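User: Sequence in, structure out. Go.
Assistant: Echoing your sequence, followed by the structure tokens.
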Amino acid sequence: MNVVAIIPARMNSSRFPGKPLEKIHGMPMIGHCLLRTQLCAELTDTYVATCDNEIYEYVHSVGGKAIMTSDSHDRASDRTAEAMTFIENENGEKVDIVVMVQGDEPMIQPSMIEESLAPFHDSSVQVVNLMSKIDSVEEFEDPNEVKVVVDKNLNAMYFSREPIPSRKKGVEDVPMLKQVCIIPFRRDYLLKFNSMDETNLEIIESVDMMRILENGEEVRMVMTNCTSFSVDTLDDLKRVEAAMKNDPLMNTYIA
């Protein structure tokens, strides 16, 4: 099976401009994402998709593969699909599964990608999204963290930047789960997803996966026990740097 990881990244982030090249333990964040993703043995190849020369040149400087894409994309999935089409044209072979790894997930572990790919033995599964437990009320209430609730089959019911499910009725022990932005798509479903119009709740929540739910389709969620924090703010960057201080995986790619 041809499984390709694509890491969309751009400098013009609305919440944290320039964050892909912000350094964590001396290495730009996008470098951590790339080099850690490449360690997954189930991937055929790994690419960074970007519209910025600075990111493109950096990726090549560390021996990675980068693809220049249009600067008109608003969504990471559109950039990912453009890069996938380029890869297929260059290699003369269709991709089976595209693993979209957001460029602000520098704590990614190869096992997380493996976990996200496991459900595809079921031919009905078209898209998968990792999730993990939230350990603190502070993180649960952070609007930069996308929360998710799931049904008994581990399909997503709703994504929100609000703390869901509600704790307002005095129920303290609610399942606090967050989206982790490792999202594999079957090839054709990625193209279908990008052909769908944006939906109202997707826009309100600013969560792409809501487009799938609003169209009555499924997102299979997979729990990971790996600790991962995304980077949306400078404070997030500092938290990730502290969390990665004794990270054994980092020692395998930083001299």
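User: And one key feature?
Assistant: The first strand starts at residue 3 and ends at 9.
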